[in-house]
Amino acid sequence: MMRTQCLLGLRTFVAFAAKLWSFFIYLLRRQIRTVIQYQTVRYDILPLSPVSRNRLGQVKRKILVLDLDETLIHSHHDGVLRPTVRPGTPPDFILKVVIDKHPVRFFVHKRPHVDFFLEVVSQWYELVVFTASMEIYGSAVADKLDNSRSILKRRYYRQTTPSPSSPGSVTQVTQLFSICSRCWMPLGSPLMFVLC
């Protein structure tokens, strides 16, 4: 009788220990996933071969126009949560700007691997940043993305971007991009595609 009680107690202890161990492993895996999610990915940036560099030097560089918001970054300001960013995700950087005499903090999330993308693509194209945001915000974000590499020299903001309702918008876009024959512009808005 004592032996069966001892075996029953041992089985209960082993079952409890197994459940406790499973729970511990679950928490550990969850923590590791969280750590891995925010680790920086490092790439080896291979320089262009001499032949490729020579060929690129012989042709006029094409221009790649990139939309800042929702293409290169996601951002939200104080008190506004974006459904595209998981709650609790830390921003890559925080910008503090003054708009209409009111300080506003923007929480900026870079697209995954955007730094690597800009570094590599800047070898092939002249990069231009295009945004419908205010210059004070767009300039600060572009400066952070550029990171003193001088790859985002040309920037266009709300002040230089025509609104679709303005009567001269097609003329303004044509003037803005007088080099459209060398220009490639991935756009999020079909209306802007029609205007170009």
Strand order of the main beta sheet, please?
6-5-1-7
SSE order, one letter for each helix or strand = HHEEEEHEHEHEH
Give Rg in angstroms.
26 Å
Bin the helical content. Answer: 40-55%
Low-confidence stretches: 167-172, 191-196
What count of helical segments does DSSP give? 6
SSE class: alpha/beta
Overview of this structure, please?
By secondary structure, the protein is an alpha/beta fold. The chain has a domain of about 100 residues. About 40% of the residues lie in helices and about 20% in strands. It contains six helices and seven strands, in the order H-H-E-E-E-E-H-E-H-E-H-E-H. The chain has a four-stranded parallel β-sheet, covered by helices on one side. Strands 2-4-3 form a three-stranded antiparallel β-sheet, with helices on one face. Strand 3 and strand 4 form a beta hairpin. It starts with a helix and ends with a helix. It comes from Trichechus manatus latirostris (Florida manatee).
Summarize the SSE layout with pairings.
Elements: H1 2-37, H2 50-58, E1 62-67, E2 73-77, E3 93-99, E4 102-110, H3 114-121, E5 125-130, H4 135-146, E6 154-156, H5 169-176, E7 183-184, H6 190-195
Parallel strand pairs: 1-5, 1-7, 5-6
Antiparallel strand pairs: 2-4, 3-4
Function: Essential component of the TIM23 complex, a complex that mediates the translocation of transit peptide-containing proteins across the mitochondrial inner membrane.
GO biological process, one term: protein transport
Protein name: Mitochondrial import inner membrane translocase subunit TIM50
